[in-house]
Amino acid sequence: MAALATAFSTPIRAEGDLARGAQAARTCMACHSFAPGRHMTGPSLAGVWRRRAGSADGFARYSDALKRSGLVWDKWNLDAWLKSPAALVPGNAMGFPGIAEPRTRADLVAYLEAVSTGRVTVPDRGLPNPKELDAASRVTAIRYCGDAYRVTTADRKTHTFWEFNLRFKTDGSVDGPPAGKPVLIGAGMQGDRAAVVFARPEEILTFIQRQCP
Q1: CA distances from 164 to 32, 148, 152, 202 (A)
Q2: Angstrom distance (rounded) from CA 134 to CA 80
């Protein structure tokens, strides 16, 4: 009876289901890429299995709390992190409340291990590659007047945006646009929002000219 009682009091961690884990990973992909070296809001999750916390190459926005944690991302630490990042590492910078359902966490941990070890390949659902965009997306000039930006692209078309709906971003990674050749990337279902992505922040002011028609 004592042995039976012990068996029922010990948590059972069944192996996760990879198909369900892939579904759960869609939540992660809002902030993380699975492509090596492609960092977003959070670091790339490629190779996360058995990696020391706060050590992904090329990601410089880790909190001091996470870098000092000494954690290694194994099954147990990933489960605890996914349950509550704030509880596992107080003061970390990940704005994620956690996953309460143990089954979902087990599925996601199994999926992360499978991706890291090469048993599963994740389709690339990242942002468009700026180096592969056509003339309709390559920016040649930006004019500003009143509350409007007028963006001219290499296909000789001009697109007008309300100033609040146009964002200026930078991507200095190997996946970013070539120096001096920003690109226009649409956002929003109605075509009224977009972002201009530059290789470096100092390029932004050189492109924007205050000029009214």
Answers
A1: 26, 9, 18, 21
A2: 45
DSSP-derived 3-state class of residue 58: coil
Count CA atoms closer than 13 A to 73's CA, side-chain side: 24
What's the rounded mean pLDDT across residues 72-77?
A: 97
The structural domains of the chain, with segments of one domain joined by +, span: 11-116, 130-210
Task: List C-alpha distances in Å: 149 to 155, 156, 164, 166, 187.
Answer: 18, 16, 9, 8, 15
Q: To 10 degrees, what angle do helices 75-83 and 102-116 make?
A: 130
CB atoms within 10 A of CB 142: 21
Residue 123: partners with Cβ closer than 8 Å, 6 or more residues away: none
Q: In 3D, which of 129, 191, 200, 205 has the Cα closest to residue 157?
A: 191
User: 29-43, 54-68, 105-119, 142-156: lowest mean pLDDT where?
Assistant: 29-43
Residues paired with 196 in a beta bridge: 168, 184
Task: Give residue 128's pLDDT.
Answer: 63
Please choose, from the candidates 50, 49, 36, 30, the residue with its C-alpha nearest in 3D space to the C-alpha of residue 122. Answer: 36
How many Cβ atoms from other residues are within 10 Å of residue 168's Cβ?
Answer: 17
d(C-alpha 156, C-alpha 151), whole Å: 10
pLDDT of 180 above 50: yes
CATH of span 11-116: 1.10.760.10
Asked whether 140 and 152 are in contact (CB, 8 A), the reply is yes
